[in-house]
């Protein structure tokens, strides 16, 4: 009969819950993070917190240190201290030691969890993670051994998670989830599509509001929920933190004057992605971003700085490619947008937009034109074909830069009679003509589905 330490199990689950609510940053690929409990309620531990390749992995009293914080990742790896749980040499023999090693993406570092036996199996060797000699003494070597369902092969993962697995903590519909940054908690509006399993990882779209709006208002204005239901993707609509009339504005890096102590919104959106990925069971390789007006500018800036977190972007009435160059505001400052990878872009803009003028000008937050912004993204992405211009409908034209690095095309839909509006919205915001000749939501989702973030 298996005996599990109830206290040890509870401690693991509480620690995982605390890590989540405290806003601990997890890597983009992490499903859950925290201690892994084994025999006698003791924890899987990296000896002395070492990070050298070959460092011993052992059983030890649970102590909450970084040496016992494991990320159970979507790619089947289990990671601590930036390295992977590894079967030494991939040797298929009982007693082969398990160690810490650089993550190499090979079979030595793959793990599968059996929810019935609670065993962690390495598929390459067909053997299970095992506390040597059924010992629970501190320092007991962790090894692989023929899977036998004994208590020394019984593991409790953080939050009850499994490699590549998750459970969505909210049902279908609109909800608020807490996100913590720098000790302060914010409520973030989210939407979960109907008809999905809570254990299925879904794509996720960040939907950023315009100035003087909120996240919940943006969810209504962008009319994105029907597209989310049809495409089975999550929507996350956070709110800026700078008061603006009856709503809020974003702290877009490098432009305008912001209040002292304003929230770092690049860091905030990064934390939103981390928290929402865990709470909503999102696929971290399929995170996308859109935004209207100031939200489009914010998403553009986020893509410049955190291209490792979003696979593609779709600014509406707000495409930027960095701040205006102080020496010549008719062009972007190339130093202010240097993403770590090519960024696929699809954008929408009305040519009669009086707030963020299509041909440039406007306030200090804007200045250079939308075609200039598109061309700059094409340069960043290494596109060699274009611009190719086609007519889509009576008032809509499409400009494409293609043959880009990693297929990261840059697409712009320009609406000749369109105002400062979201294509196909049913909400009249008083900012000019709304086109119904195209749907921004439909087109951006078709575009997004072509791209995923590269996995580590």
Automatic annotation (TrEMBL):
Alphabetical list of Pfam families matching this protein: Ricin_B_lectin
Signal peptide: 1-30
PROSITE patterns cross-referenced by the UniProt entry: RICIN_B_LECTIN
Domain Ricin B lectin span(s) in chain numbering: 30-158
Swiss-Prot/TrEMBL keywords: Carbohydrate metabolism, Hydrolase, Polysaccharide degradation, Secreted, Signal, Xylan degradation
Primary location class: secreted
SUPFAM superfamilies reported in the protein's UniProt record: alpha/beta-Hydrolases (SSF53474), Ricin B-like lectins (SSF50370)
MF terms (GO), sorted A to Z: feruloyl esterase activity
GO biological process: xylan catabolic process
Protein location: Secreted
This protein's name: Feruloyl esterase
Phylogenetic classification of the source organism: Bacteria, Bacillati, Actinomycetota, Actinomycetes, Micromonosporales
């Amino acid at each position: 009969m298996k005996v599990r330490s109830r206290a040890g199990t509870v401690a693991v689950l509480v620690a995982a819950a605390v890590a989540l609510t405290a806003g601990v940053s997890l890597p983009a690929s992490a499903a859950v993070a925290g201690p892994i409990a084994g025999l006698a309620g003791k924890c899987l531990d990296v000896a002395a917190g070492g990070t050298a390749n070959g460092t011993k992995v052992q059983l030890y009293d649970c102590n909450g240190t970084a040496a016992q914080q494991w990320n159970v990742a979507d790619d089947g790896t289990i990671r601590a201290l930036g390295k992977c749980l590894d079967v030494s040499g991939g040797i298929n023999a009982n007693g082969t030691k398990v160690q810490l090693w650089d993550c190499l993406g090979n079979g030595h570092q793959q793990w599968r969890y059996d929810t019935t036996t609670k065993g962690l199996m390495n598929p390459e060797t067909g053997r299970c993670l095992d506390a040597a000699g059924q010992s629970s003494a501190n320092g007991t070597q962790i090894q692989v051994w023929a899977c036998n369902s004994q208590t020394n092969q019984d593991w409790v993962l953080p939050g009850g998670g499994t490699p590549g697995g998750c459970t969505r903590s909210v049902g279908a519909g609109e909800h608020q989830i807490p996100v913590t940054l720098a000790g302060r908690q914010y409520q973030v509006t989210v939407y979960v599509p109907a008809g999905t399993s809570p254990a299925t990882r879904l794509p996720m779209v960040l939907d950023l509001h315009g100035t003087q709006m909120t996240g919940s208002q943006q969810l209504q204005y962008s009319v994105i929920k029907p597209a989310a239901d049809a495409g089975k993707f999550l929507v996350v609509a956070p709110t800026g933190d700078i008061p603006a009339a009856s709503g809020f504005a974003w702290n877009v890096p490098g432009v305008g004057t912001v209040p002292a102590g304003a929230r770092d919104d690049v860091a905030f959106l990064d934390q939103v992605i981390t928290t929402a990925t865990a709470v909503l069971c999102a696929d971290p390789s399929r995170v996308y971003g859109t935004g209207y007006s100031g939200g489009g500018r914010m998403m553009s800036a986020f893509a410049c700085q955190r291209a490792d977190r979003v696979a593609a972007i779709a600014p509406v009435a707000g495409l930027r490619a960095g701040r205006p160059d102080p020496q010549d505001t008719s062009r972007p400052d190339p130093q202010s947008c240097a993403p770590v990878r090519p960024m696929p872009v699809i954008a929408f803009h009305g040519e009669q937009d009086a707030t963020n003028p299509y041909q440039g000008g406007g306030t200090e937050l804007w200045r250079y034109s939308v075609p200039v912004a598109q061309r700059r993204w094409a340069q960043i992405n290494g596109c060699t074909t274009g611009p190719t211009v086609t007519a889509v409908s009576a008032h809509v034209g499409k400009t494409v830069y293609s043959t880009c690095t990693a297929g990261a095309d840059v697409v712009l839909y320009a609406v000749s009679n369109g105002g400062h509006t979201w294509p196909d919205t049913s909400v009249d915001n008083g900012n000019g003509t709304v086109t119904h000749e195209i749907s921004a939501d439909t087109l951006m989702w078709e575009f997004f589905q072509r791209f995923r973030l590269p996995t580590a």
